[in-house]
Amino acid sequence: MSGAVAPEPADASDLDAILALRGSLEDWMAQTGLVQWPRGSLPRERVAAQLAGGEWWVVRDPEIGVAGSLRLLRTDPDFWGDDATPAVYVHGLMVDRRRAGTGLGRALLDWAQDQARAAGVDVLRLDCRTSNPALRAYYEGYGFTAVGVRDFPTFSATLLQMPVGGRPASA
User: Fold this and answer.
1) pTM above 0.85, yes or no
2) What is the CATH number of domain 8-76+85-122?
């Protein structure tokens, strides 16, 4: 799957597929000992509201349906507080395990950078749990830099950002 992708805007008809993908990844994480998304941690109602708000994008695969997804936001006060820096925020980046290792995750991040550039912002941001060093290393390998930590009652999140277009050519 190397190369460019063209995610499509998701709508209410994608709700079950997005939740199924998330559930399969939650199960895989639990089985492998990764701590990022606990089972059942994303309520159906929240995803439905996010879909209604036009936040979700999906990559479809003729063999498996939704092979990847992500959410794009223009603000993220839950994780980044009142930071007024013009940025695009990535959440819900998911790749079906049957497409792991194909470059789909990186292609989705490339696409998110293109969207940030088109929006006229200079910074792409995301977060991951501090308890998930593998995911942090993945993002840092792409070109993100850790710039802070946000503590919540049940977990801490590492905040990462990169300049739009700042991905190293070798990544």
Assistant:
1) yes
2) 3.40.630.30
